[in-house]
Model the fold of this input.
Amino acid sequence: MLFLQKITLPDGLPLNAYAETNTNHFIMEPWNTITSLFFLIPVFYWLIKLKGRYKNYPILMWSLPLLAMNGIGSALFHAFHISRWFLALDVLPVLLLILVLTTYFWNEILRSWFLSVLLIGFIIAMHVVLHFFTSVATSINLGYLLRGIGLFLPFVLILYRIKFKYALEAILGILFFILALIFRTYDKDLIQYLSMGSHFLWHICTTIGVYFISQFVYHYISLKHNYTS
Done:
């Protein structure tokens, strides 16, 4: 395993970064590639559902291009591992998406864009600390956990404010994201049960989590502005 860690792919990642990677195949990670495209499902769902009402749900509409970029970028990244640009497309859009949503929800709680941005700045600073003082794997996984806390804590506060309406959607979204993080973390540890690893389940569970969270956002905005949902 240590030997494999020293072998890097053209995109800079170690050969054993994912359990499914097979450089002998044209598509190196078929399961991870196909399930990356699942991120496009909620994009098309909301484009159809909100047709004619896009201006009423700006936060959802801002999120869709980032989600689409993440799905396409992730598919290209997992399929070929030939470019750091594909790696960037796998990582940066989802980071921006989380940043946008986190800022939006904290502003709903704090009623101050300044304080919300300040809080996000603190979270980013913690990411920098993790990057320089922990291993790559630890930095990535703790980074997802930190972003999750930053995103979902205001969820709880908003749920309290609206007397826990649509709580099931929020809870299911959070649970699927937690499950997704588990599958991402233990990708290579589950090879004895899943020969392709469990990273593809990270994609599936994240997609389901996105669906439930976006449903919560949709209903919250509808409730706040008295829109017909």
Q: What stands out?
A: The chain is about 70% helix and 0% strand. Confidence is low (pLDDT under 50) at residues 1-5. The CA atoms of residues 11 and 81 lie 5 Å apart. The first helix runs from residue 2 to 6.
